[in-house]
Amino acid sequence: MTTKTDKATGLARLREPFAPNQINKLPKPYRADSQKGQCRECGGFHGLPAVHLDYVGHAALTDRLLEVDPEWFWEPLAIGPDGLPQFDKDGGLWIRLTICGVTRLGYGDSQGKRGANAVKEAIGDALRNAGMRFGAALDLWHKGDLHDAAEEQGKVDAPAEEPAPARTLNRAPAVSEEVRKQWQDQIDECQDSDDYRALWQTAKADGAPEQILAMIVAAGKAAA
Fold it and tell me: Does the predicted model carry a pTM greater than 0.85?
């Protein structure tokens, strides 16, 4: 049975900051019609230039929920005639999230995806939204909301100058076989997309050559 003290401690734990390796980057191009290209900041392929918003993914949030309350659960707010969670006319899903005996609502959508991926995306989005009602990653949500509000008001301006084009690999200094092997060993230890993303960020922070960054991106895409 969950005591009042356990509940207070668990709910307070939800509000604690997430570790840097649990935070992902969501690129948001400054214009909807921005030309796509390889991003030097996140390694992804999307419209440029773009701002990168921090967010916590489904896996990291689930890990936190299990740590706080192993018996947490969610349920859809409505059930359709087929016995499955009922989505609204916009393709969104309302849920109840219960943690430490406290229940709060959340809403998620599929971000334009289709099929089974759309369902998983909506559930993950709804869990993050409901988790935010408990304070989970609230600081990251706040930054994203501020950006979205400024964007709607037309106050988000692109940089005065376009970022310099990325240097092509054939112009970059050659990487020694020893350095390449050291990074390749770390790449081989990666298990999922979060591992590749964390390794890429570490390599960038360490000033690794572009060839190494490209190796990490290529390995991550091949493993996806």
Answer: no
* 16-75 confidence digits (pLDDT tens): 988 888 888 878 787 878 888 888 878 888 888 888 888 888 889 999 999 999 999 999
Using alpha carbons, list the distances in angstroms from residue 143 to 55, 66, 136, 139. Answer: 10, 26, 14, 7
Of 73, 68, 67, the residue nearest 11 (C-alpha): 68
**Region for residue 10 given its phi and psi (left: phi exceeds 0; alpha: psi -120 to 50; beta: otherwise):** alpha
Asked if residue 156 lies in contact with residue 30, where contact means CB atoms within 8 angstroms, the answer is: yes
Cα 201 from Cα 22, distance rounded (Å): 12
Alpha-carbon span 16 to 14, nearest angstrom: 6
Can you tell me the distance from the alpha carbon of 224 to that of 221, in angstroms, rounded to the nearest whole number?
A: 5
User: β-pairing, 73-76 with 50-56?
Assistant: unpaired
Which residues are 47's β-sheet partners?
A: 36
